[in-house]
Amino acid sequence: MLNDAIWMQRALDLAQLGGGYVVPNPWVGCVIVRDNKLLGEGFHAQYGGPHAEVNAFKDIQDAQGATAYVSLEPCSHTGKTPPCADLLIRQQVSRVVICNLDPNPLVSGQGVAKLEAAGIEVHIGVLARKGELINRRFFYFHRNHRPYITVKYATSADQFIAHPNGDAHLFSNPISQQLVHRLRAEHQAILVGVNTANADNPSLTTRVWPGNSPMRFVLDPQARMDKNLHLLQDEFPTYIFTHEVAKSEGNKHWIALGTENFLQKFMGYCEEKAIQSILIEGGTKTIEAFIRDVEVQEIIHIESTEVLGSGISGPQIHPEESESYKLGTDNRWSIQLGKENLA
Ligand SMILES: NC(=O)c1ccc[n+]([C@@H]2O[C@H](COP(=O)([O-])OP(=O)(O)OC[C@H]3O[C@@H](n4cnc5c(N)ncnc54)[C@H](OP(=O)(O)O)[C@@H]3O)[C@@H](O)[C@H]2O)c1
User: Fold this and answer.
1) Whose CA is nearest to atom 47 of ligand 1?
2) Which of 71, 198, 313, 314 is the right S-S partner for 99, CB 3.0 to 4.6 Å?
3) Predicted model pTM
4) pLDDT band at 342, cuts 50/70/90?
């Protein structure tokens, strides 16, 4: 029904306001409607905080006979918060419209079963494609039990990522910088190779977009990272993956993966620690290793109009664009989404 799609779109818009504050939880929005009038709305705004349904009912006195639009199947189990399916039953809604079922096979369908057992009409799959897309990292992780990998890099118009001596060049303009920081907040971890760490001295935190900073990972097999870098001196935790060095100094951790199958072992570590998503921010060698040896789900290329003439070449991956935007006058942002996102 057209109204179902309109109200679900509102729930999905709200869901995205959770943005970089709810990782590794999904983005969820909820709208309560009766006689096509809005009674209340809410979204999951903070990891560990109230679910979207709880926030949506917060200011409603009477929801009897209403329809609840929820972008993800209401939970049926007690986690950090009580089950949302029970809340919907208690509030005496007569209909629940759901965008996507919970991807976790152990809980998928159980929220729906609980609602139906209480006599509530349930309709599933409204704007399902849109829901899958906004929660693509969450769905991918729960279906495949490995992190969703996004590669992001910026180049000059002639496809260099840095000056010939390795000095960084800021290709991003303030708009693309904001989008990069938004991406950081939306991923659970961010990763660079040791050359990027040493050359750029990056902080890899989220600063120009609201949201949490991701866990910081560095691939540094020989443990040759400069000790004076922000990554080793600031207050945020950093995880450095090496061949042999294993130690912790405060919240800086060196993890030894051995010399064989380094990247596969790194992925194994992430699977074991349930890392849901990783943003690979370079440089070229690291990006090319991920593209070559690991399945990458999303590639984002920021291309400046500046011409460097010479420098360190960007990754030789020639992404096919599935979307392309102009960001201000001097940046173009193109995205290639994996086939599972485009189906
Ligand atoms: N424009 C941009 O978007 C952007 C982004 C980031 C960086 N950069 C620039 O890129 C330059 C650095 O790029 P880069 O390609 O030289 O280096 P890099 O990718 O930053 O680091 C490469 C090093 O990381 C380790 N490493 C990476 N992947 C590995 C794997 N799969 N297995 C084992 N070790 C792995 C290796 O260290 P070992 O050599 O010790 O084995 C490797 O030599 C810098 O100049 C920086 O300014 C540009």
Assistant:
1) 168
2) 71
3) 0.94
4) low
